[in-house]
Design a protein that fits this description.
By secondary structure, the chain is of the alpha+beta class. The chain contains five helices and seven strands.
Length: 175
């Protein structure tokens, strides 16, 4: 499962397919992600968002990737909040897979691949992630990729109209 999964740096040309996935999956993701303006679900809105991510990439604060299955974009994996200072060297991982490609191992494989990017290309020491307390599939995925829970961020994110707690995850890279 998911053996045909790859990742690469996002491109502005990915905007239309990402917008189509996000429109199709809006209800499925409502529970797990913050509300977005209507523009987010358009190719133009995604192109603008991608341009911002690529500016962050050039500044060294983010590594924005797409997840591919058989060379087709099926989601995203992002390393954000990169702190490259020698005494910190950490960042957070976020990901999503379009509904039609879920439960096939792609998300787990993509996280494994981006952990290699974090260690090898970005020279980071620590990977962090956060999940909603009720998002058990994402928690299983993180555990399979060597993450351990280390705390709860109370009332940390507004999801589907209410403040939710987040379970915090960590993994030391290269050990």
């Amino acid at each position: 499962m998911g053996s045909n999964t790859t990742i690469r740096l996002i491109e502005t040309a990915d905007a239309a397919v990402i917008a189509a996935h996000r429109v199709r999956d809006v209800e499925a993701f409502r529970r797990w992600e913050p509300a977005q303006p209507a523009e987010f679900f358009t190719p133009e809105g995604q192109a603008k968002r991608i341009d911002g991510l690529l500016a962050g990439y050039r500044a060294g604060t983010v590594w924005p990737g797409v997840v591919l299955a058989d060379e087709q974009v099926i989601g995203q994996v992002t390393v954000g909040g990169i702190l490259p200072q020698p005494h910190l060297r950490r960042a957070s991982v976020g990901y999503w897979i379009t509904g039609a490609a879920q439960n096939q191992g792609h998300a787990g494989r993509a996280v494994g691949l981006v952990l290699r990017v974090m260690a090898d290309e970005l020279a980071l020491h620590r990977a962090e992630a956060s999940t909603d307390l009720e998002n058990l599939p994402s928690q299983r995925l993180l555990r399979r990729n060597g993450f351990s829970p280390y705390g709860v961020a109370h009332s940390s994110i507004l999801l589907d109209g209410r403040w939710r707690d987040g379970l915090l995850w960590e993994r030391i890279l290269g050990d």
